[in-house]
Design goal:
globular; 18 helices; 3 domains; UDP-N-acetylmuramoyl-L-alanine:D-glutamate ligase; Rossmann fold; 6-stranded mixed β-sheet
Length: 455
């Protein structure tokens, strides 16, 4: 396959970059483009991929390209997509391409509104410890997957097993037909696409009906929506097996003791991986060793260092349910510390659609700082860049308005501009405090810049 070349549009995305690594591991020549440089694009370049950064251009698509794969965020008028059409090059979305790859294996797909990456990581480590040698695509970087240094979102195995995340955004997971599907939970998420919870439930049910003949669904019994979906699944796919996991299971205590990461939500994630291990006949002792070996993922309660004598953690939480879980985990790990949270809301539509939930999400912290809402390119369908500005002007949806609403609940909450953050924190953080830098936007880069400062 050395003569075949694949070009990825949006190669800096966590999923797309993992798929690019998969193809390169198979001998394909890989190129890609992204609007901004990141540590992911830098790593891909070091691994020998041709990476173009900046405005999308027709010239970014190399001669000899045999397939173009693009993210869901790519618009139809993207110059690189248009160039591929002009040349007659086949074009696939990331989900379509991943679905094609997964069909070559005995696929194990991990879906759910929250906990996908951690559960995928735990599932993968369980299979590795069990000697099943899976290929893995995960939506985070794992320290256990090296090289490259700092971890990877891809592992090449040499067996028939393929473990991967199945994202529900824009119904991407309907491209997959796994042998085993884990669903961690269902929640009101991606409402810009689904509009309501009924549509989300319908999509998850349809995903589960895509299981291969006599496939296995591993579901969270603690989730009322999944219990409802299971009843429908039994009627539509009676050939499929349904396996349950729950925090009430006897194995919960052993898993909590084995886990090195805090939070009840992570015990639930571990239970999903544990159930998968038992389905695949992996001994309990090996599953517990795999779970104990897990050191946590990139940007999931990820310790970064100290700033102004406070411990700094980066966390990807950007949904109210995730925020609550992360704050609960922080309180569990640091019961005597003052918990600070700096949160950058992600996506105007999400912030507006879940506004009442965001107001109640931060009860677990002592001090809250809200930064401006991060506008997601290609996803602000209702507001758009101009609409977002109007919303801020008229107070329809702003971080300042959210901070006021949270303050009325008795939480110390304030709005700051990003340029004010470093000075404010250096003045008010004290020894022993814990600082959570939380969100899915540019707050990761802010965190790195913050830790470069010396106070």
């Amino acid at each position: 396959m050395q003569h075949e070349r694949i070009h990825f549009i949006g190669i800096g995305g966590i999923g797309v970059s993992a798929l690019a690594r998969f193809y390169r591991s198979r001998g394909f020549r890989v190129s890609g483009s992204d609007l901004v440089r990141s540590e992911l694009t830098d790593a891909l370049r070091r691994e020998g991929m041709r990476i173009s950064i900046g405005k999308h251009r027709r010239s970014h698509v190399p001669s000899g390209t045999t397939l173009v794969i693009h993210t869901n965020a790519s618009q139809k008028d993207n110059p690189e997509i248009q160039e591929a059409k002009r040349r007659g090059i086949p074009i696939k979305t990331y989900a379509e391409a991943l679905g094609s790859v997964a069909n070559e294996f005995k696929g194990i797909a991990i879906a759910g509104a929250h906990g996908k990456s951690t559960t995928t990581a735990l599932a993968a480590l369980t299979l590795i410890r069990g000697g099943l040698d899976p290929t893995v695509i995960v939506g985070t970087k794992l320290r256990e997957f090296t090289p490259p240094a700092g971890g990877s979102n891809f592992r090449r195995g040499h067996s028939r097993y393929f473990v991967y995340e199945a994202d529900e955004y824009r119904a991407s997971f309907l491209n997959y037909h796994p042998a085993v599907a884990i669903v961690t939970n269902i929640d009101r998420e991606h409402l810009d696409f689904y509009k309501n919870i009924r549509a989300i439930e319908a999509a998850f049910l349809k995903f589960l009906t895509h299981l291969k003949t006599s496939g296995t669904a591993i579901l969270n019994r603690d989730d009322i929506r999944l219990r409802k979906i299971a009843r429908a699944l039994r009627k539509t796919r009676p050939d499929c097996n349904i396996m349950w996991f729950s925090l009430r299971d006897r194995s919960s205590r052993a898993l909590k003791n084995a886990l090195r990461i805090p939070g009840t939500h992570n015990v639930s994630n571990a239970l999903a991986a544990f159930t998968l291990g038992r389905v695949l006949h992996i001994p309990k002792s090996k599953i517990l060793k795999a779970i104990h070996a897990y050191r946590g993922s990139w940007r999931r309660f990820d310790y970064q260092g100290a700033f102004a004598n406070a411990k700094v953690f980066a966390d990807y939480a950007h949904h109210p349910t995730e925020i609550k879980a992360t704050l609960q985990a922080a309180r569990e790990k640091f019961p005597k510390s003052k918990i600070w949270c700096v949160f950058q809301p992600h996506h105007y539509e999400r912030t507006r659609g879940l506004y009442p939930d965001f107001v109640k999400a931060f009860d677990g912290c002592d001090r809250l700082i809200l930064l401006d809402i991060y506008e997601v390119a290609g996803r602000e369908r209702t507001l758009g860049r101009r609409g977002a500005g109007l919303a801020q002007k008229h107070g329809e949806i702003t971080s300042k308005l959210l901070a006021r609403a949270i303050s009325r609940r008795g939480i110390s909450a304030e709005y700051l501009k990003a340029t004010e953050l470093k000075t404010h924190l250096s003045r008010h953080l004290k020894h022993g405090d814990v600082l959570l830098m939380m969100g899915a936007g540019t707050i990761w880069d802010m965190t790195k810049q913050l830790l470069k400062a010396r106070f």
